[in-house]
Recover the amino acids of this structure.
């Protein structure tokens, strides 16, 4: 294989994967799924989009192998597809916090309006809270603390071995 063909093929495949991250609704869906598995109906309700629209976004994420699905009776449950998919989402959120001023301004405004302007990062917990650090390998599942991604998310503890853990 010629080097140029090789490079074009590789970068085209990577670009295809990153397109799945290129929509605000899909990013919100990934954020929801980082907190545990959900049905398309739950996702639609929590994101204020139609079930058909949520289903289309989930199909894009599934085709990009960022989410996986399992059927249970009449319902299909979606989860993040492993640690690397979760890490990619987390890295994108971290980058947005550092590189996009609008994200930080919006986050600060939300915290102020919610009455919690002093949100903290996981790394800033006192050493006496080490048990909390080891509770979950997935920062968005930690109650009132995150690891370099202080976006608001539902409070929910998880353990890496649990069925709802997005990276198992």
């Amino acid at each position: 294989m010629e080097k140029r063909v090789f490079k074009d093929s590789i970068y085209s495949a990577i670009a295809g994967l990153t397109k799945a991250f290129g929509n605000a609704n899909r990013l919100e869906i990934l954020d929801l799924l980082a907190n545990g598995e959900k049905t398309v109906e739950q996702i639609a309700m929590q994101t204020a989009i139609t079930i058909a629209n949520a289903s289309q976004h989930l199909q894009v994420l599934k085709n990009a192998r960022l989410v996986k699905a399992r059927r249970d009776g009449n319902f299909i449950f979606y989860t993040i597809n492993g640690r690397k998919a979760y890490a990619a989402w987390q890295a994108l959120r971290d980058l947005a916090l550092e590189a996009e001023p609008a994200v930080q301004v919006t986050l600060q405004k939300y915290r102020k309006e919610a009455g919690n302007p002093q949100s903290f990062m996981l790394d800033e917990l006192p050493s006496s809270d080490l048990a909390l650090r080891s509770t979950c390998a997935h920062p968005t599942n930690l109650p009132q603390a995150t690891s370099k991604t202080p976006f608001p998310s539902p409070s929910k503890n998880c353990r890496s071995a649990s069925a709802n853990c997005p990276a198992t």
The chain has seven helices and three strands. The two ends are 37 Å apart (CA to CA).
